[in-house]
Amino acid sequence: QVDLVESGGGLVQAGDSLRLSCAASGRTFSSYVMGWFRQAPGKEREFVSAISWSGAMTVYADSVKARFTISRNNAKNTVYLQMNSLKPEDTAVYYCAADSRTYNSGRHRSSNEYDYWGQGTQVTVSS
After folding, report:
1. What is the distance between the alpha carbons of residues 10 and 122, in angstroms, rounded to a whole number?
2. What is the chain's alpha carbon radius of gyration, rounded to the nearest angstrom?
3. Are the CB atoms for 6 and 20 separated by under 8 Å?
4. Count of beta carbons in the 10 Å neighbourhood of residue 126
5. Residue 46 in contact with residue 110, Cβ under 8 Å?
6. 3-state SS track over the chain
7. pLDDT tens-digit series, residues 13-44
8. Tens digits of per-residue pLDDT, 55-96?
9. Residues with Cβ < 8 Å from 82, sequence gap 6 or more?
10. How far is the first Cα of the chain from the last one, in angstroms, to the nearest whole number?
């Protein structure tokens, strides 16, 4: 069982930056693939980024590539999403998720791969 709590969301202007954090409970955090997803009003939840157990491998949605960076600190049981050059279309509730299986850059783009989810944090980008 893993409990996930996101933080760091807020209201910013286009071009600003935010860093989201996701704190995980449990002593096996380092064995979980971690992902970030987002859901805008009236839209389906979509993949943002994922990171392997060690942090050595990452994958991003095309819409955020070169603007967002995922990272993790296994000693602190925390995964981060650094978001730069934010756009109004980045407005959404952002969720982190955890999966205990082997990292796969293809499979871990799907929300179906993840067993545990946080409650989400709102990010609003004004134009």
Report:
1. 6
2. 13
3. yes
4. 11
5. no
6. CCCEEEECCEEEECCCCEEEEEEECCCCHHHCEEEEEEECCCCCCEEEEEECCCCCCEEECCCCCCCEEEEEECCCCEEEEEECCCCHHHCEEEEEEEECCCCCCCHHHCHHHCCEECCCEEEEEEC
7. 999 999 999 999 977 888 999 999 999 999 99
8. 999 999 999 999 999 999 999 999 999 999 999 999 999 999
9. 17, 19, 68, 69, 70, 71
10. 40
Contact 44, 34 (CB under 8 A): no
Q: And the tokens for 16?
A: 């600003």
| φ/ψ bin of 85: left (φ > 0), alpha (ψ from -120 to 50), beta (otherwise) | left
Cα(103)–Cα(35) distance, rounded to whole angstroms?
11
Contact assessment for residue 73 and residue 19, using Cβ atoms and an 8 Å cutoff: no
Phi-psi region of 28 (alpha: psi -120 to 50; beta: other; left: phi over 0): alpha
The strand pair at 10-13 and 121-126 is best described as: parallel
Q: Count CB-CB contacts under 10 A for residue 13.
A: 10
